Structures are given as C-alpha cells and as structure tokens.
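Thread: quick sanity check before group meeting

JM: Hey all, I'm pulling together slides for Thursday and realized we never actually wrote out the predicted structure for the chain we discussed last week. Dropping the sequence here so it's in one place. If anyone has concerns about the input, flag it before I start.
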Amino acid sequence: MGEQTNPWECINGKNIPTTIELDPIIYKYTSPACRILDIGCGSGKASNLLASLGFSVTGVDINTEALRMAKSSSESQNCLQIPLFIRTDARALPFPDAAFNVVIMQAFLTTIVSKDDRARIIREACRVLEPGGYLYLADFGQTWHSKVYRERYINDLPVTKEEGSIVAYDEGTEEIAYVAHHFTEKELVFLLIDNGFEIEFFKRDEFVTRTGNRVNGFIIVATKL
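JM (edit): ok, ran it. Output follows.
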C-alpha cells in the first residue's frame, strides 16, 4: 500500500480472485444478531452469502468496480439483509471502536505486501471489534512442496524482497499486476497475537487458486482480548 498507488485500486473487478469459500466453522462464532465486517470484500461473495442468511454485513474494499459488482450481486440475490458496501482503506477504518461482533478476512492479507501495513490492518480489525469479538481469517500458506510455487518463491524474491511472496503478471501487458504473499503458520499466529488477539480455532486446509493450482491454506478464528 505505502505511498504509491495500491494496484488493487486499479485492477479489473472481475479479475479479483474469489476462489476461497467460507468455512462452516464461522457459523459457530456467529448469531443472528451479529454485526459482521468483511474487510477486503472484493465483489462481495462472502458478504452476500452472509447477508442472504440474515446477518447484518458491511463490506469494505479499495476497489470501486468490485464494490459496484458486490452491490449489484446483492440486489439480484434478494438478500434477507441488505449489505452495506463502502470504499475505504483497511489501515484506517471509518468505524467507531467496538462497532462489530465479527470481522472476516477472506484471502485479503495475501494482497498486503508491507509487514507494517498487515499489522496496522489487524490492529484496526481489533479496534472495531467488541471485546471478546471474533476475527475469522482464511489465507494462503507457503507451499514449498509444489514445484510451481517453489520456483516462483525463489525466482520472484529479487522483486518481492520477502520469502514466500510471488509476482502476478498482467496477461495483456506482461507487466507486474500485483504481488501476493503466502504465509507461514508462525507469521500469521504472531501477527494476530502481537496485535490484540488470541487464537481460538486453527485449521490447515488446501485451496484451489483461480488458475487451478493447489496451495496450502490456513483458517483461523481469533478472539479479541
């Protein structure tokens, strides 16, 4: 994010990956009265699913086109609750303290290339959660056993400057579209516990990417202390 333009502001909304499904574990930590914040909601896949089930959902993203898609999708689905979609920067959320019961992040932190920004985002998520509220997080894990990812981690390191990060190129221009980071378990756990959370639930999983590759993943539920 930093001082330069965030590439996710400009990317075509239809090209934002949305392959990860919400894990059913989230329903253990929600109730009908929950106020849910979906950070990095993209085109609204998770937000609209939750709204269709009757939850009060606010989705935030930095991509204007994706937010338009999310709103259009919610209207066509006739959700039980009408989700609210807001364009904002996850590092400085426009909500008061303790405004939500649950925060979700679906494959969002992978798009944040700065360690400092990841920490700021988690602190903001913590701030807007009520005491004892839950953060549900699903994201990509480093997949060194895969030849595809092993080569990308190594070959892209001079560009990304961070082990476990990869470069995605624009198919039309062949220029860098964005950088994505794959986490270790230790990275994610300490990112959470250093910024106001304790781990409530942890599961290793396997996700399928938009291009059909299989990649390690983590699903975490953390409690605000």
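AS: nice. The domain at 7-224 is CATH 3.40.50.150 (Rossmann fold). The chain has one domain: 7-224.
JM: adding both to the slides.
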